[in-house]
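tool_call: predict_structure(chain=1)
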Amino acid sequence: MKFNRRTFLKGVAGLAATTGLTGAAGVTGYEYATRVETTWLSTEHLPVPIKNLPASLEGFKIVQLSDIHLHPFTQIDFVKEVVAAANQLQPDLVALTGDFVLKTAGSIFELAPALATLNPKYGIFAVLGNHDIWTDARTVRAGLEEAGLPLLRNEGLALGVGKDLLYVAGVDDGWSGRPDLALALDRHRGDIPTLLLAHEPDLADRFAADPRVSLQLSGHTHGGQVRLPGKGPLVLPRLGHKYEMGLYRVADMWVYTNRGIGVIDPPVRFNCRPEITEITLVGA
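tool_result:
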């Protein structure tokens, strides 16, 4: 994700004047964007209707975390707060949709053990993002595996839930990897709902052509990090322009784009808080 620093900082500098953030609290717009909102965690709760959802999956709860980008801006203490908040939701499954690190692949060896304390009933599943590949995909993969966190790279599996099945699949990064949905769904059998983890949301236009995919979970965009009232995000990354934030319907498939936990340089957020997503599957 390549942001124009001058554009960002010009927008952030104007926030105090345009939003009235400088006031009795003595907090300027820039201080708010760099010190307050970057760690002001939001939990988004939403039901997603799934066609032909089996009875055992009614109310199945998925918690999604994305774009943690540990170091130098996002610190492990904040990640531990996020993990604790996620555990309080008592998820059935946790989806980690990539970009675990930002500048140093070795940060994964500090991050992965913290993520391994997540406590979903049916497991944690992860995919890589572009920054994981740009730093060193092999190192990031090793850190996840060492902590016992399953990484799905163009693969999937059928998860038994009660008397029914949920297929969980993950594809390689769309920017710098080789995503292969057909390979990820190679073990898919029968008419069962499918959860797909894909770092970049705009891959949905391609993946929605496969009727087996019920819901795609993505991150990558950070929601833009800075969203100006009436204008939206100042800038968005490649493969993140169309489905920038929140829930969308693409053909017969849903795609949800998480705003992420961490930030990239410049480390600011405005009108775009870091996010834990709690998705509950319900019958259509």
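agent: Residues 58 and 114 are 30 Å apart (CA to CA). Proceeding to next step.
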